[in-house]
């Protein structure tokens, strides 16, 4: 399983030969100018919620790749009705076996509306199980006790958590989240894109190290092999 960081909350996953893009926000992120969005491969696009900084590049990518959208009912329906995009609707608590692996939809505490004001359903996170591993993609979320449910069902190899604060958890809360989900390797996301979510990298690394957890803050375009 290969996880590539495309800035903000945008990820590219390579699992079982399939390409999955998560929350693509690249063309409008000046920090991700090194990512050639027109050459990104996608068989699926996973969307955690409908905010612009998670869906900005969905239309361009899906029109080019014909990728299938996996998200909540409202988001999948929005793209089906407005763009005739193919999708697979899920909702919290649900799981489905795709050809790359199993996706479980878990709770996130946030909001979710499209830039035009259309209701975007509940924000969600995902647990992806494939190649004998489990990864948690939290989406935009506050710290929530619901995270404690995840290790009842999954032994996580990687948790991808927002750490930038202001809109989501900050470093302190992400540390507690890492303990709640019982995962020792954490990848940070949703930080440094704009001034109010800038973090001190050294401080973040030190604080995770102090509880014997490994924090990954990938450069934009960098990949992590799991
Ligand atoms: Ni959001
Ligand atoms: Mn966001």
How would you classify the quaternary structure? single chain
**What does the average pLDDT come to?**
98
Structural class, please? alpha/beta
Q: Could you tell me the strand content as a percent range?
A: 25-35%
> Considering DSSP H and I runs of 4 or more, what fraction of the residues is helical?
10-25%
**What is bound: which ligands?**
nickel (II) ion, manganese (II) ion
CATH arch. level architecture: 4-Layer Sandwich
User: Major sheet, described briefly?
Assistant: 7 strands, mixed
Which value, in Å, is the CA radius of gyration?
Answer: 16 Å
- By CATH, the topology is Metallo-beta-lactamase, Chain A
CATH superfamily: Ribonuclease Z/Hydroxyacylglutathione hydrolase-like
Describe the protein.
With 226 residues, the chain is an alpha/beta fold. It has a single domain (2-220), classed as Metallo-beta-lactamase, Chain A (4-Layer Sandwich), CATH 3.60.15.10. It is built from six helices and 14 strands. It has helices at residues 52-55, 58-65, 73-83, 150-153, 171-180, 201-209, and strands spanning 2-5, 11-15, 18-22, 44-46, 68-72, 87-90, 95-97, 102-107, 124-130, 133-137, 158-162, 185-189, 214-216, 223-225. The protein has a seven-stranded mixed β-sheet, covered by helices on one side. Strands 7-8-9-10-11-12-13 form a seven-stranded mixed β-sheet. A hairpin with a 5-residue loop joins strand 1 and strand 2. It is globular and about 50 Å long. The mean pLDDT is 98. It binds nickel (II) ion (NI) and manganese (II) ion. Nickel (II) ion binds at residues 49, 51, 110, 140, 167.
């Amino acid at each position: 399983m290969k996880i590539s960081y495309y800035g903000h909350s945008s990820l590219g996953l390579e699992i079982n030969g399939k390409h999955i893009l998560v929350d693509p926000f690249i063309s409008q992120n000046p920090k991700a100018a090194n990512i050639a969005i027109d050459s990104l491969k996608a068989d699926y696009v996973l969307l955690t919620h409908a905010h612009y900084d998670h869906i900005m590049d969905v239309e361009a990518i899906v029109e080019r790749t014909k990728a299938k959208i996996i998200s909540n009912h409202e988001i999948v329906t929005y793209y089906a009705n407005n763009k005739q995009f193919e999708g697979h609707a899920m909702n919290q608590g649900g799981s489905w076996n795709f050809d790359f692996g199993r996706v479980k939809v878990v709770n996130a505490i946030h909001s979710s509306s499209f830039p035009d004001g259309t209701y975007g359903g509940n924000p969600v996170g995902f647990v992806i199980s494939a190649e004998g591993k489990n990864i948690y993609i939290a989406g935009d979320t506050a710290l929530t006790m619901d995270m404690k449910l995840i290790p009842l069902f999954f032994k996580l190899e990687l948790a991808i958590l927002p750490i930038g604060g202001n809109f989501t958890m900050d470093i302190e809360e992400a540390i507690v989240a890492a303990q709640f989900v019982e995962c020792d390797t954490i990848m940070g996301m949703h930080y440094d894109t704009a001034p109010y979510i800038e973090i001190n990298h050294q401080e973040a690394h030190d604080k995770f190290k102090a509880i014997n957890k490994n924090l990954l803050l990938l450069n934009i375009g960098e990949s992590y092999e799991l």
